[in-house]
């Protein structure tokens, strides 16, 4: 508008005066035409109708955003359609749901009569979509098992669990929509909040709902007590006697030796018990590898408190004479 005024200001006075008259006539004619057009009936247009859903929110909960508008075709006076198009004084149309958990849609044709009554003085031609879809679940309470997260780096290197993990309470009550509770798979993972643990553990762990579920789930319990014992496995290396078993007289091994080096990890509580064992390294001809003519070293007894047993050398070459 400022540019037009500058342009008019540069013109000669008589030309400027004539141009102002022309502009005024155009604006006046346009205004009269628009007002006359809006006063006419029998216009048809497509508008967005705001909608809302009414249901018992103490029993049901949406698990996806609900539609907030639908596309409808209406007929009527120009002024009425203009107001409707820009949602002037337009209240949401309420869709009542008795049990929304039984279905995930409502047929548009079932809403047309009630919706038409709210649109007066305009007339409803039709709702453009056949169905209005939603996802609303029933709210339930369910007991699920607490499971400590024992994944990466929970214990320090060479430390092992020396007792079962104790959880108190073993189950907690979760309340929320059915589908979100089912996503948990019947287990509630609890992060212990520590890594590289190297001593007995006893801690009250606060419970919190994961960020992506906070809008849906609530917990009855606030915390759980978790405890367990740990033990260190000690690394030891020693030489032990080597014995042959079931070897024919014409078969020897290379290298020839009467002992091998053995390294292993052992439960620190069982060191004295292990020392009392009559340990021997065994190479059995019956366990030979026929493809490469080698035989592997085995321990004559392997208690459960022993781990990562390694022999040096681990195998011997068979020599046939």
Short description:
It contains 6 helices and 23 strands. The protein has 321 residues and is of the alpha+beta class.
Name the descriptors.
single chain, 321 residues, alpha+beta, RNA Polymerase Alpha Subunit, Chain A, domain 2, 4 domains, 6-stranded mixed β-sheet, 5-stranded mixed β-sheet, 6 helices, 19% helix, elongated
Structural write-up:
With 321 residues, the chain is an alpha+beta fold. The chain has 4 domains: 2-34, no CATH class; 43-134; 139-228, RNA Polymerase Alpha Subunit, Chain A, domain 2 (Beta Complex), CATH 2.170.120; 233-320, RNA Polymerase Alpha Subunit, Chain A, domain 2 (Beta Complex), CATH 2.170.120. It has helices at residues 2-10, 13-38, 78-85, 112-118, 178-182, 271-275; strands spanning 43-54, 60-62, 69-76, 93-96, 105-107, 123-127, 131-133, 136-148, 159-161, 166-168, 171-177, 187-190, 201-206, 218-219, 223-228, 230-245, 251-254, 259-267, 281-284, 294-296, 298-299, 306-312, 315-320. The strands form 6 sheets. Strands 9, 16, 18, 19, 21 and 22 form a 6-stranded mixed sheet that branches. Strands 2, 8, 11, 12 and 14 form a 5-stranded mixed sheet that branches. A 4-stranded mixed sheet has the order 4-1-3-6. The chain is elongated, with a radius of gyration of 42 Å. The model is unreliable at 26-40 (pLDDT under 50).
